[in-house]
C-alpha cells in the first residue's frame, strides 16, 4: 500500500471513530475514498494510465489557472498543507479526509446538494461547486447567479437527468423518451423516440421499459 493509500486509511479510521461525524460524513468519505483508490496504482489497472494522464493534464491546466487567479490568501482549495503541491483526485480525497477529521478547512470542488449555491436550480439538485469542508461535512459555497441563457441550459440538463432517474426507477419508456427530448443535445420528441428504440433494441436489459 503506497503513502496515499495509507493516509486515506488513516483518515477514514479517524473519522469513523467519531460517532458525531459519521452520519454526516460516511457517504462523502466512501465517495472520495473510491475516487482515490481508482488512481492509486494506475500502471496495475488496464486502461487507467490514459485516465491518469488526462488527470495530470487537467492538474497542469488548473495550476496555470491558479497562477492567473490565485486562491484567497490563507485558504487553499485543498487546505493549507496542499499549497504549492500538485495532485489529482487522490490529493483531493486526502484533503477532504483531513478536513472531515478536523485537520482544518478546505475548499475543493465537489458534487453536493445545491442548497442555494446556484440560484435558480432546485435546492436538492446535485451541482459541482466549491465547497467548504469541515467536520460537519461539505457545505456548498454560493456563487453569482448564472446568466439567463446559462441558467436555462443548466435547468434543461437537470430536467433531463432527473427524468432519466425517474424512468429508470419506474421502467417507463415514455419517461425515457421525455428525458432524451428534454436534453439540449436532442431537444426533439421524434429523435428521442428513435434513440430509445435504438437503445431498446441494442441492450436486452432495457426491454423491461414499458
Task: Characterize the structure shown.
- With 210 residues, the chain is mainly α.
- It folds into two domains: 99 residues, no CATH class; 61 residues, no CATH class.
- 53% of the residues lie in helices and 9% in strands.
- The chain is built from seven helices and three strands, in the order ααααβββααα.
- Strands 1-2-3 form a three-stranded antiparallel beta sheet.
- Helix 1 runs parallel beside helix 4 and helix 5 packs antiparallel against helix 6.
- The N and C termini lie far apart (48 Å).
- About 10% of the residues have low confidence.
- This is Glucosidase.
Tell me the structural class: mainly alpha
Q: How many domains?
A: 2
Nearest-integer average pLDDT: 75
Beta strand % = 5-15%
In short:
InterPro entries: Glyco_hydro_4, Glyco_hydro_4_C, Lactate_DH/Glyco_Ohase_4_C. This protein is mostly helical. It contains 7 helices and 3 strands.
Any chance you could write out the topology, listing elements then pairs?
Elements: H1 3-16, H2 22-38, H3 48-68, H4 89-100, E1 109-113, E2 126-134, E3 137-140, H5 148-170, H6 173-182, H7 189-202
Q: Features of this protein?
A:
single chain; 210 residues; mainly alpha; three-stranded antiparallel sheet; 7 helices; 3 strands; 9% strand; elongated; oxidoreductase activity, acting on the CH-OH group of donors, NAD or NADP as acceptor; metal-binding; hydrolase activity, hydrolyzing O-glycosyl compounds; manganese; NAD
Amino acid at each position: 500500500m503506497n503513502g496515499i493509500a495509507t493516509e486515506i486509511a488513516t483518515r477514514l479510521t479517524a473519522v469513523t471513530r467519531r460517532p458525531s461525524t459519521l452520519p454526516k460524513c460516511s457517504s462523502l468519505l466512501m465517495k472520495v475514498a473510491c475516487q482515490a483508490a481508482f488512481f492509486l496504482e494506475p500502471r496495475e489497472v488496464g486502461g487507467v494510465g490514459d485516465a491518469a494522464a488526462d488527470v495530470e493534464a487537467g492538474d497542469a491546466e488548473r495550476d496555470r489557472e491558479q497562477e492567473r487567479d490565485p486562491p484567497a490568501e490563507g485558504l487553499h482549495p485543498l487546505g493549507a498543507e496542499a499549497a504549492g503541491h500538485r495532485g489529482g483526485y487522490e490529493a483531493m480525497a486526502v484533503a477532504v479526509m483531513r478536513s472531515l477529521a478536523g485537520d482544518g478547512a478546505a475548499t475543493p470542488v465537489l458534487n453536493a446538494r445545491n442548497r442555494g449555491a446556484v440560484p435558480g436550480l432546485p435546492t436538492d439538485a446535485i451541482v459541482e461547486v466549491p465547497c467548504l469542508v469541515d467536520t460537519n461535512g461539505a457545505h456548498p459555497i454560493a456563487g453569482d447567479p448564472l446568466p439567463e441563457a446559462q441558467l436555462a441550459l443548466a435547468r434543461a440538463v437537470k430536467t433531463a437527468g432527473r427524468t432519466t432517474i425517474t424512468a429508470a426507477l419506474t421502467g417507463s419508456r415514455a419517461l425515457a423518451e421525455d428525458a432524451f427530448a428534454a436534453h439540449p443535445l436532442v431537444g426533439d420528441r421524434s429523435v428521442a423516440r428513435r434513440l430509445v428504440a435504438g437503445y431498446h433494441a441494442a441492450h436486452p436489459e432495457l426491454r423491461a421499459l414499458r
